[in-house]
From TrEMBL:
Family under the similarity heading: Belongs to the LOR family.
Highest taxon listed in the record's lineage: Eukaryota
Name of this protein: Protein LURP-one-related 5
InterPro entries reported in the protein's UniProt record: LOR, LOR_sf, Tubby-like_C
Pfam families: LOR
Length: 205
């Protein structure tokens, strides 16, 4: 599989990688996250941002040491809920490296990801993030990452939606994938009063 956008090459793995994503606060639709590998080592974190994000529209992804990897920010005004991603901590007049948007304002819609500076590199997100079941596909319709409900292997019990798995295919940047998770969480938070956002495949042209 051809590699895509690289936020940080330190999070690209040669083998399939399974990460555990934990929401660190459950009081709001949009909260902080901690992300661990299979050995229990912290990989990413997002400090709890609660309701204030509705004002700033900005979320920062950090590594285990608190280094800013990526900032995702809601573009306003935006009819189709467009979000943009910036390397590191966003600065004024900094150009985004990718954008994420709903392809329709209708509830049943798809989410499209466009990478700037690399024509032809795009991604489609299909499934339901609200139910923690969706897949990120590249332009060749290859799965590059999956979000799934977490199962307790000792009891075979499906855990709550505040804990879920992020499966990375070989060569796909985990920091980019986690940035997309943050956008999906924000979109889901915007739809929280409606019972959660769903993303569905767009009609074939």
């Amino acid at each position: 599989m051809k590699g895509g956008l690289v936020v940080d090459s330190g999070f690209i793995y040669e083998d399939e990688k399974h990460l555990t994503v934990l929401k660190t606060s459950l009081f709001f639709a949009n909260d902080g996250f901690t992300v661990y590998d299979c050995k229990g080592q912290l990989v990413f974190r997002v400090d709890s941002y609660g309701p204030d994000t509705r004002d700033t529209g900005e979320v920062v992804l950090m590594d285990a040491h608190g280094r800013c990897l990526l900032t995702v920010r809601k573009k306003r005004p935006s009819l189709h809920q467009r979000w943009e991603g910036y390397l590191g901590e966003r600065r004024e007049r900094q150009k985004p490296i990718f954008s994420v948007r709903r392809s329709s304002i209708i509830r049943r819609c798809s989410v499209a990801v466009e990478v700037y500076g690399n024509p032809g590199e795009e991604y489609q997100i299909e499934g339901s993030f609200a139910n923690r079941c969706c897949t990120i596909f590249n332009a060749q319709k290859e799965s590059v990452a999956e979000i799934r409900r977490k199962v307790d292997v000792s009891t075979n019990v499906v855990l709550g939606k505040d804990v879920f798995s992020l499966c990375l295919k070989p060569g796909f940047d985990g920091a980019f994938a986690m940035g997309l998770v943050l956008v999906l969480d924000q979109m889901n938070g915007d739809d929280y009063v409606d019972g959660g956002a769903e993303v569905h495949p767009a009609a074939e042209e």
